[in-house]
Fold:
Amino acid sequence: MLTRRFFLQSAMLAGCSAAAHPLMNSVTFAAVPGDRRLVVIILRGGMDGLDIVQPYGDPLLAKLRPDFAIGPKAGAADLDGFFGLHPLLVPQLMPMWTAGELGFAHAVSTPYRDKRSHFDGQDMLEAGTGMDVPVSMIRDGWLNRLLQTLPGATAETAYSVGEEELRLLSGAAPTMSWTPDAWLGLSSQGRRLLESIYHDDPLFRDAAADALTMTAPEATMEDDLSGDDVPTARRRPPKPETEKVPGHNALAAFAASRLKGAARIAAFSLTGWDTHRGQEHALRRPAEQLAAMLTTLKTELGPVWRETLVLAMTEFGRTARQNGTAGTDHGTGGAMVMAGGALKGGKVYGKWPGLADADLYAGRDLMPTADIRAYGAWALAGLYGTPRETLERTIFPGLDMGTDPRFLA
Structure:
């Protein structure tokens, strides 16, 4: 069977980081007392908040990103006269914004600084700690520490292909696991890459070959088996009639079904936000998936949506300036997406720092003006009545929550 090492090694050789690998995602559930629901989505890869929620009212944005489509004239939806919603999100999410069920927090980040590693950034985001404690020493996540403060809380954990348990909900609170069946398909280029990577490693070479053979028994790693110009006898067999990998809409629908039952907390991840090159194209898939997931959650939850808050959080933002390949690189300050009937939406929360050179972090990144953990802490305080002292000392150790941004309805 394919192992985590298999995916990690192949992804690190193939691209920037396995933490942004498109084959990895997971979903986790927990049941706690009360009627309020919380959904946390980890946006892996470093979502570009400056593109998703465009501060088009700052004239420097267009100068920093001359090749990007920016503002209402380029198809973004005006939100408040300063910020615009990316065109890919407009069809599905503007009705949610208009209904007061969608909002954003801009210029936010974890305390993580400077090294800009997906792995370290995601670990800190899920652990909920600061820079004073090495993430490697933290064995649990902030949602699990919340569960430990709620009497009678239970949890079950579910995985999709290729990802172990989210640190977000790992810890002393009990969990159970569910692993769906998976159908794995790779392009011919991907097959050749993996064959090359593991050519001299018999154990992983044979494991990879076995796994790929099970998914496409008539295919070989040397064949380009897609397209109508390939002889019928050599084409890759079609996917099974029933697709076994839960699609992102299916994951959201499954989460909603649990949240309508005993579950009160759901957490899962959405990958693909690492947009180093060709960002206009690279952003399409994750942005449309996020919009579809939020829409599916609202539709499937029905009246429960009124009691639901969704927080979509990423490990860091991206550089203010575009790079030489019409993309952006790892940054610092970013944006958080919020949704749900429990949200006081229709607003972009936070203090805008500006995009002048002197205002950027390290002369390159959006300057964070708020700790993203504070939004998580105020969410837990409002949803579950968790005391501030517990939030600042136990769940998010070392956090100063500051003033309540009052984003809950």
Remarks:
- Residues 42-149+267-394 form one domain.
